[in-house]
Amino acid sequence: MRLSFVASNTPIARKAREALVELYGDVPLAEAETVVALGGDGFMLRALHDARSLGVPVYGMKLGKVGFLMNRHELPDLVERIERAHPAILHPLEMTCTCINGQEHKALAFNEVSLIRQTNQAAHLQVRIDDLVKLDELVCDGILLSTPAGSTAYNFSAHGPILPLDANVLALTPISPFRPRRWRGAILPHASRVGFTVKDPNKRPVSATADFHEVRDVQSVQIRQSRRHGVRLLFDPEHNLQQRILDEQFAL
């Protein structure tokens, strides 16, 4: 099996990569059958973006603080573990945002797209679903749209729901909402087109972030799930991603 090992920029991850390369060899990303990512969930997101364009699966090993998307770090029997691994197909969100200077930016997010206020001024946002205005003015610190794979991350910290991987839904979750006070978010069909308009963006500037790609001073943001783009994430069969998401709902 042609493996390409990529590691986060930490001493423990780099040392683990050296040991694995010595055991299994290493090929360039463009020649790999499987990418093995060594680090935490943040590094895994970058590996998923890199592997998506190559069409190869990614198998992660936990060598960071958070490892929800990772498997155990063990040296023996890696090829056998990859051959037995269960795939989870992740479809990212596609973000298109227009800034106050007229520039347009596009990015993909496997976890979530979030809008956050840039100053001490609360954000004033209009929220549209499938071109219909659902909230004319949401006063908040921000809002995010999460995939099921990302629902246990920032979305859950913002009191959003944990979504089963095969539920075909997205979580729309406000961040510190002030008005309307009783609105706590929504669960949307995965095919929904979600739009945000920033009201008074010069006085109340807002940034938009798709995973790790940030765009500042946005005026409007359009988001939809991309079925054209996808990546296979591999998990050991005894602890696959769907089971992890289920277990997380019972974690104390």
List the uncertain runs. Answer: none
Query: What global shape is seen?
Result: elongated
Rg, alpha carbons: 19 Å
Spell the H/E element sequence: EHEHEHEEEEEEEHEEEEEEEH
Helix proportion = 10-25%
Structural class: alpha+beta
Beta-strand percentage range: 35-45%
What strand line-up does the widest sheet have? 6-5-16-13-8-9
The first-level CATH class of the largest domain is given as Mainly Beta
CATH H-level superfamily of the largest domain: Probable inorganic polyphosphate/atp-NAD kinase, domain 2
Remind me, CATH topology of the largest domain? Tumour Suppressor Smad4
Distance separating the two termini: 40 Å
Structural description of this entry:
The protein is 18% helix and 39% strand. The protein has two domains: 3-90 and 230-248, Probable inorganic polyphosphate/atp-NAD kinase, domain 1 (Rossmann fold); 93-225, Probable inorganic polyphosphate/atp-NAD kinase, domain 2 (Tumour Suppressor Smad4, Sandwich). Helix 1 links the parallel strand 1 and strand 2. It has five helices and 17 strands. The mean pLDDT is 93. The chain is α+β, with helices and mostly antiparallel strands and 252 residues long. The protein has a six-stranded antiparallel beta sheet, with no helix packed on it. A six-stranded antiparallel beta sheet has the order 12-11-10-7-14-15, with no helix packed on it. It has helices at 11-24, 41-52, 78-84, 154-157, 241-248; strands at 3-7, 34-39, 58-62, 86-90, 93-99, 104-109, 112-117, 123-129, 132-140, 142-146, 169-175, 186-189, 194-198, 206-210, 213-215, 218-225, 231-235.
